[in-house]
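Q: Start with the shorter request: fold the first protein.
A: Done. Sequence, then structure:
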Amino acid sequence: MGILADWLTEWLREMLISGIMGNLGGLFDNVNNRVGEIATQVGMSPGAFHPGVFSLIRTLSETVVLPIAGLILTFVATYELIQLIIEKNNLNDFDTWIFFKWFFKTSMAVMILSNTFNIVMAVFDVAQSVINSAGGLISGSTAVNMSMMATLEAELMTMSVGALLGLWLQSFFIGITMIAINICIFIIVYGRMIEIYLLTSLAPIPFATLSNREFGGMGQHYLKSLCAVAFQGLLILVCVGIYAVLVQGIATGGDLINRLWGLVGYTVLLCFSLFKSSTLSKSIFAAN
């Protein structure tokens, strides 16, 4: 009976260790893959993310919104001309050079409005370059390697069956939390891109006001919001990178049970940080 009990105990230990390594190994692989996917997804330009939607947004902007922006620009240019004429003592001090000034500003405004999409895409090209550069660094420094997994397995071999059973249940629960993480990241990434498409569709209207000192605040605020949304991708990537580094601690040093529950806390913190990334980015660019 003693030999049979020892065999059953050893078999159960091996099964639990295999289950824990499978759960945590899948968790680490998921984290490693997610960091790479985030770097790719948030680094995409609006046109590359979904060409069909981008084509629809661009057509809508150029055929529906741009004519409205042209009317706004006409009003702004006319208003500015009137202001230039009457600002010098109600025509008592009148200079003809103001017409050249007005013509130059209006020409620049028309040029800016005509190249609205080029300017908007330039903002995202800059952000995309920064995010892709950061993504390579973060992906390379956060991967959980095989030596860490070997250290974890050696630590599990020294534990009792009861402790291993508890760890298996906890690792199974933590695997479920990763599903919530994936849903959260999906909402953040795709929600950000939808916001980008919405901002892009109305771009001509605020761009039509940029040349005027009184109405230009609308265009300036729009550009700040555009930069904030573009560089939010970098903050999302940094959040996931920090999480990946913290996850590495599971495989090395300290009490394993505490580390596993610490991971649950890191997961909740990551979700909170991802949802806060939009607010933080807007505050940095003063787009609130």
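Q: Next, the second protein, separately.
A: Sequence, then structure:
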Amino acid sequence: MSDIRWFADTDDNHSQWYVERMRDLAAEGADLAGEARLVNAMVAPGSRILDAGCGPGRTSAVLHALGHRVVGVDVDPVLIEAARADHPGPTWLVADLATLDLVALGEPEPFDAAVLAGNVIAFVAPETETQVLSSVRRQVRADGFIVVGFHTERLDVAVFDENVVAAGLTLEHRFATWDLRPWANDADFAVSILRVP
């Protein structure tokens, strides 16, 4: 369980706190679907989508409700348990993104797209960013895409771009928000669309 950064920085109750936080935001009517709206706009109806680092399932749930075939993966069993309880429909799996092998987990069909929302890439264990991007890339079909969003204070964009190249991916577009505001070098958030060759 030590392979994501927040476990080193918070107490043992962080996962449950995060579950309750997401539930509270949903109950308050907060917009938790921005990432899903972007992915939905980029894929055909009924696409197969991987939510890599899905947490308690907010993005997967929206994509599933829109008719996509969604698999949510997270290393934290507490978050996956909450996803199963709150959002029946998608397939939920506990797995480490750095060593992800969905064929071995009974999901052999390639994905049309993958999404890493909620700072996932900035929370993986240090020095595993390329490994995570590579293992997610292996799950996505040729000419599919991966969308990655993160706060730039958590992960340097230039370092991320090096990881992208090392993982065999191509940066196709970058925006400053999930609702596609233009990218600028001083932006505090980056949404990168990566193409799988």
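Q: Describe the second briefly.
A: The chain has one domain: 5-195. The CA atoms of residues 95 and 104 lie 11 Å apart.
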